[in-house]
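Table S7 (text form). Paired inputs.
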Amino acid sequence: MSPPALTFFDTLLTILGVNKDAPRRPAFEKVHPDQTHSFVCRSVVGSRFNAPYHYHPEVELTLITHSHGHRFIGSHAGPFKPGDLVLVGALLPHVWLNPPGCRRAEAIVLQFDPKLGGDPFWNLPELHPVNRLLARAGHGLVFTGKTRNKVSDILGSLLSTQGPGRLLLLLEILSLLAAARPASILSTGSPHPASPTQPHSDTETRIDRVYRHLAAHFHEPIAQPAIARNAGLSPAAFSRFFHRVTGRTFSSVLIDMRLGEACRLLQETDLPITDICHRAGFQNLSNFNRQFLARFHLPPRAWRSRFAPESLRTAPASA
């Protein structure tokens, strides 16, 4: 039988070296525009992104302008870097986490009530494509290419725009996203909280701590049974907990994070592939090549040749 929730929570805090007496931010977030605005568009600047794994009734569009790390959106776990543009639907849990040592993290965040203006407005025939976009955003959508570039420019303008122009820019952004080529869906499941007014729960707190531990240590040997044992759970109980909350297995999320880091290093550095293998957390080159090929249908060297800048395409395969 699983131990009480508080025991599990406190054990996870011990694993992660977090002071259990520190304030526990709620996993449910209610977005509050100020009195002069009907929705939020703000610049987030700090040494790292500090929001917990959370959800809210508002739709969120996040543009990363500086830093990198891993994002967790519903059942999705993957890397992010500058230029990352993601639309998160209402009630879809999400968090952006930076690696240890991060000293600068910046983003532009747009949050709006999907019923802003009321049903008659959203039921206008001109907005049917936008409604379809918001429905798909329930799984998380990532945008690239020209659409990302255009929307990024508008978000920058939206930060300083006042009055009716703000609403026009919001509609322009949604129109561009709705008209874009089908965006990549991030989360294959729908692990939404039970209620949009549900307060903070131990489940969201626990998974937030687990994700933070993974984001800080994914490149190190991580044994699921050891984490389960230290948390006071059997491996089977921990597996059930993790799968119930995320819709995925612990090992698949860990592999996704390591492969995402490997892609970042292949695209941004000239490190030999053997070094990238170990820096991403894989213990041997054969397993790394096998996992990479299974996920991307290309070996690492071919992936680098196709997606990395010209100057990195001939980087050595080994030290």
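Next pair, protein 2 of 2.
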Amino acid sequence: MSTEELTLHSTLKRRVVVDCIVETMEPLHVGMGKETLSVSEVDMPVMTDSSENPIIPGSSIRGALRAHVTRLLSSLDETTLNGEFNVRKVKAKDKEVDDFQKAESQGEKMEKFRESLGVVDKLFGVSGYASPLRITDATPYEKIDLADRTHVKIDNDLDRAVEGGLFDAQFVPEKKHFGFKIVFDELNDHVTLDVSNVFYKLILKQLGEGLEIFLGGMKSRGYGLTTIKAKQVLAYTPKQLALGEKPNPITDINQFIDEALKEKG
């Protein structure tokens, strides 16, 4: 299998940097995975940084956004997908992704990119193609005192509690705030028109209004509901990036979206 990444050879039109704030609406548990813990520790700790501050990995936010976008677009009829987002395909099948990854030349990869990959694959990336969308880890704005809660493991087959199945889960309480960045590189071409449309008309628009989305685990136990909202949006031109200049913040997100889409049109 070829591991060479596809290069679109397109110039950068703009880089959009979105400073986002996450507010926990329910307890939030982003776990560290299975580890051997001492008796004094909780059974399911949350993920923390080197200073013991809770964090939400960018990969978790990315996965939640990817699932959200896929679910919404897959629910739309073909007329709406084409007319509103210029989307021909939402998501490629496994074999189509595999065929793209096996392409030996840039020309063959480009053909597979156009014909086989869906907008979700192109926006969030697949092996062999780097995503134009990057998301940083979310870190807390304030000091957060973590809490823990005891739960009972349930045997789903017998629909009853498992004997000796008590466990403690650590969590971030409600009404706590985290900050992170979304960075989107918009290319100056029409090959990724569907990608730009989905980013602007779906992701950025909803972030401007405030997007309710579930993060982390234990969602069936009342964990994970958050609101993500764009706090500040910056749009860099290639010249500003090259010279290290900072643009003025976008004051009207909806107007910026309309103008960006007209330019792309």
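DSSP finds eight helices and eight strands in the chain.
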